[in-house]
Amino acid sequence: MRTLLNILWLVFSGLWLALGYAIAGLVCFLLVVTIPWGIACFRIAVYALWPFGYTVVQRPGAGAASAAGNVVWLVFAGIWLTLGHIAAGIGFCLTVIGIPFGIAHFKMVPVSLMPLGREIVRSDAAYPSYRWNPASR
Fold first, then answer.
1. CB 37 within 8 A of CB 28
2. % of the chain with per-residue pLDDT over 70
3. Are 29 and 35 spatial neighbours (Cβ–Cβ below 8 Å)?
4. Do residues 101 and 13 make contact, with C-beta atoms less than 8 angstroms apart?
5. Is the pLDDT of residue 132 over 80?
6. Are 118 and 111 in contact (CB under 8 A)?
7. Which residues cross the membrane (predicted)?
């Protein structure tokens, strides 16, 4: 089911989102000083391509530099990206078929609001107690 949702997401939303984040990442790399935000843009672009089965978690050891970088990101890009994901999420949730895609947009809000100091990991790695284990029966 996850694969089917990811393929449909890729067609209806993911490809355009990933392309936008990748272009923003390239612009950040061209401006040299903004390379950390460019890396974050590429990380978000990969997440935008295939969001189902992945989640965003806080990276242990992220310090004051990540917090300061997130404040700069929040002012210049984070608020606008977050509002876009919220608007798209609400739009998708207006239809019954689009609810999973709306939820995927809502899952992207934390990483688009403050991307530094976060990691994108497989959902089963983030929440190992929820994995099905046949030996536990």
1. yes
2. 91
3. yes
4. yes
5. no
6. yes
7. 30-50, 62-80, 86-106
